[in-house]
Amino acid sequence: MGKSKKTKEERKRDRYIVERFHQKLTEDSLEPLYKAFLDWKKGILPYYELTEKIHFVLFSDDKRRK
CA–CA separation, 53 vs 38, rounded Å? Predict the structure, then answer.
């Protein structure tokens, strides 16, 4: 069977969907870290807890984050 090619519009739509999905994943991962930075700046969150949160976001797999 031949593989049908997508139109320019379909490729553009697909890129948009993937970009939005990636943006959502990134924002969902970084939002808690952003809030932790704000708390650290206000003196609410100790430095060591901030670094633990950073390490968790950067080095944990997706299953542990949920």
Answer: 13
Please state, in angstroms and rounded to a whole number, the distance separating the CA atoms of residues 52 and 57: 9
Counting Cα atoms < 13 Å in the Cβ hemisphere of 57 gives 18
Instruction: Report CA Rg, the chain.
Output: 19
- Token pair in block for residue 59: 């080095």
Question: pTM for this one?
Answer: 0.63
Q: What are the two backbone dihedrals, phi and then psi, of residue 20, each rounded to the nearest 5 degrees?
A: -65, -40
Tokens of 51: 């670094």
pLDDT at 66 over 60: no
Cβ contacts of 47 within 8 Å, gap of 6 or more: 40
